[in-house]
Automatic annotation (TrEMBL):
Recorded superkingdom: Bacteria
Organism: Devosia sediminis
PANTHER family, A to Z: CONSERVED EXPRESSED OXIDOREDUCTASE (EUROFUNG), CONSERVED EXPRESSED OXIDOREDUCTASE (EUROFUNG)-RELATED
Pfam families hit by this protein: GFO_IDH_MocA
Protein name: Gfo/Idh/MocA family oxidoreductase
């Protein structure tokens, strides 16, 4: 057996505890070799729980650890661009949770940071690795036959689902200064795109784009390519977002609503004259919830629905395999920084509609 990939984790919060730590620990192709977080009690908990030998006082020290092959950046979004810059320069392979950065202006200069030719920098858009999504991509009809596309994220946020299914260690020893600085930096980054005088609801809506909607919008691009532009977008109260993407002979309609109804209704539908493709995703916070692709095909006299799934393999696990495949075999990585930049440019364009509307 080849030696496992030695990974270091920066940030040990919810997504690390729910997904990345258990998936890495379950997989003999990886070794969790080092960790860091700004919470000492959390570092201590994870080190004991996962038997991690090396704990670092901060991200800089972890990135300087020459014993690591790869680093996972799992921190709040406002730290992503700075940590990406340092991680790329460290020469290690990089997995970063989405979004790669909060703004296109932050990400753009990182594309020209000198890199070893085989370095993988991979952005964690797990929905794009779901088997049902990959099947939809394979089965997608010719673009010129598409009449309409509907994409949606009508959801309740994580705490409701997590509270009933998992015990996440929530530390109380993170300095209030770190929390306050993080909030202020986030607001300032959002304002750098949306304008200093941007109303709070439009600012929140831009943040919803970089958080929840980035999954759907990056999946839309993966499936259909880049739209010609954003024909219309609006938001209400920050957590209802509607956007119409112009694909020329059809329009892709995107809707996001974050509310307190306990369901997670996310998916993509593609309609041609005689076929309706319907892909659904459930909440990612509960592992292994099934995804399904339904394809209804009609002729003049008959109709039928083919159901692919339910598929139980968790998209986070497939994503981890894809990361490893890029590192070990050099397989091209579709969720690259260049790819993420397209999303951030679209979010800025949507944001301009929020301001105009
Ligand atoms: N793919 C998905 O579906 C998905 C789901 C949830 C979160 N995420 C992304 O993952 C990232 C983390 O989200 P989360 O929900 O786990 O957040 P979280 O707040 O629960 O965890 C972040 C962790 O980073 C730590 N941290 C903060 N500053 C740090 C620093 N300077 N150095 C080291 N550690 C630091 C915090 O103490 C905390 O433990 C975000 O970018 C988020 O967008 C993705």
């Amino acid at each position: 057996m080849t030696a496992p990939l030695r990974v270091g984790l920066i940030g040990l919060g919810e997504v690390a505890q729910l997904m990345h730590l258990p998936l890495l620990a379950d997989d003999q192709r990886f070794a969790i070799a080092a960790i860091t977080d700004v919470s000492p009690s959390l570092v201590d908990y994870v080190a004991r729980r996962y038997g991690v030998a090396r704990v670092h006082a901060d991200a800089d020290s972890l990135l300087a650890n020459s014993d690591l092959d790869a680093v996972f950046i799992l921190t709040p979004d406002h730290l992503h661009a700075d940590l990406l810059d340092k991680a790329i320069r460290s020469g290690k392979h990089v997995f970063i949770e989405k979004p790669a950065a909060l703004t296109a202006a932050q990400l753009e200069p990182l594309l020209s940071v000198p890199r070893p030719p085989d370095q993988v920098v991979f952005v964690g858009y797990m929905r794009r690795f779901s088997r049902a999504f990959l099947e939809l991509k394979t089965r997608l009809p010719a673009l010129d036959t598409i009449r309409h596309v509907r994409i949606r994220d009508i959801i309740r946020e994580a705490p409701f689902f997590v509270a009933q299914t998992r015990n996440v260690f929530k530390p109380n020893d993170v300095s209030p200064d770190i929390i306050a600085t993080g909030r202020a930096r986030t607001q300032s980054m959002l304002r750098s795109v949306m304008g200093e005088d941007c109303p709070a609801d439009a600012l929140r809506a831009y943040q919803v784009l970089t958080g929840l909607s980035s999954h759907s919008i990056s999946a839309m691009r993966d499936l259909l390519g880049l739209p010609k532009g954003v024909r219309y977008a609006t938001q209400h109260g920050g957590e209802t977002v509607i956007a119409l993407f112009d694909y020329g002979h059809f329009t892709a309609l995107y809707e996001a609503v974050i509310d307190d109804v306990s369901r997670f209704d996310a998916g993509i539908e593609v309609l041609t004259q005689t076929q309706h493709f319907k892909l659904n995703y459930d909440t990612p916070y509960i592992r292994n919830l099934p995804t399904k692709l339904e394809i209804t095909t009609s002729s003049a006299t008959e109709t039928g629905t083919e159901i692919i799934g339910p598929i139980y393999e968790d998209p986070f696990r497939i994503e981890l395999g894809a990361f490893l495949d890029s590192v070990v075999n050099g397989t091209p990585n579709k969720t690259s920084l260049e790819d993420s930049l397209q999303d951030l440019k679209l979010f800025a364009e949507i944001g301009r509609h929020f301001r105009a509307g």
